[in-house]
Amino acid sequence: MEPNKPNTTTPDFDPASAALNWLQQHENGVILRQLGEELLKTALAVEKHPGAKSVGHIVLKITLERIENKPLLEVGHEIATKVPKPPASTALFWTDGTGRLHANNPRQRTLGFGGELGDFTITAPNTPLPGSERSAANS
What we know:
The chain has helices at 15-25, 30-48, 133-138; strands spanning 57-66, 73-82, 94-95, 101-102. A hairpin with a 5-residue loop joins strand 3 and strand 4. The protein has a domain at 15-82. It has 139 residues and is α+β, with helices and mostly antiparallel strands. The termini are far apart.
């Protein structure tokens, strides 16, 4: 075995333990806290948006760069998350034969109220309300 090389061929070597050990040591465990926070945030966002397309992503990017000709690596990390977006607001519109959108059905005739006749309000029949002057005069 060469000097300065770890023995990775024995059954004692566990890659998962080595990775967890690095995660705990890197920046005093800040990466594990960040992963935990992002996991909770993403899980809540996915839960709030039920549906078949409700998917969240957490990406851990670890960068390793060799320093000169030494057995020394500069190691960095980046955590990126993508949470589901709430559905965009929608509205219903009618279309005509040309593809234009209309708030009202363009194929339905209007009754002609308004326009030249002006705006008007439909009210209840002219019946007096109990306790009003008019009902007292008619009784």
